[in-house]
Amino acid sequence: MKLLNKLVLFDIDYTLFDTTALKASDLTQYSLYDEVKSVLVKSSKIAELGIFSKGESEFQKAKLQKTGIVKFFQTKNIHIFENKNQNLKEVIKQYGNCKIYLIDDKLEILYNAKQFDPSIFTIWIKRGPFAQDETFLNNFSPDATITNLKEAISIVSD
To answer: What per-residue confidence (pLDDT) applies to 107?
Structure first.
């Protein structure tokens, strides 16, 4: 039974989507990290799934379409902005009745989310160009740090 009082918001680049492979292929190879589809299947049974991502909206949505994962996300739960920090509060307010799990590769986004709403469970996925960013902002530590999305399933299941 799906628990609709939980929401997992995923970033796209370096979280779900292998952006390094896309760049190396001159923007022709759309691929996910190996575990992504199985994680989305399992996560969708215990929570609503959403996207909170930075970038040009149509290009980001094309990544979801071309990799076949768009089906896991209701349109109302897809949030794509040029500046995530500017839109963070607006997105979080939409889910006031949910336990929110935010998975991102950028500590700054997780830090800002926690500042706005301390109840958000922040998960830092350490891969991509920001994986070595150990400059924790104001001594901020995310609630969890993972290197593979499979690790998030047990966190969201609790």
So the answer is: 92
pTM of this structure = 0.94
Two tokens at 9?
């918001």
pLDDT digits (tens, 9 = 90+) for 82-131: 999 999 999 999 998 899 999 999 999 999 999 999 999 999 999 988 88
Q: Identify whether the C-beta of residue 42 lies closer than 8 Å to the C-beta of residue 90.
A: no
**How is the chain split among helix, strand and coil, in percent rounded to 5?**
40, 20, 40
- Three-state secondary structure call for residue 50: strand
Amino acid identity of residue 153, one-letter, is I
- Strand-pairing partners, residue 125, are 146
Q: Give 1's pLDDT tier (boundaries 50, 70, 90).
A: very low
Could you identify the residue written with the tokens 């901020």?
A: 140
CA gap 99, 155 in Å, rounded: 12
Sequence ranges of the domains in the chain: 6-157
Give the containing element (helix H, strand E) for 7: strand 6-10
Question: Domain 6-157, what fold?
Answer: Rossmann fold (3.40.50)
Q: Contact 125/103 with Cβ under 8 angstroms?
A: yes
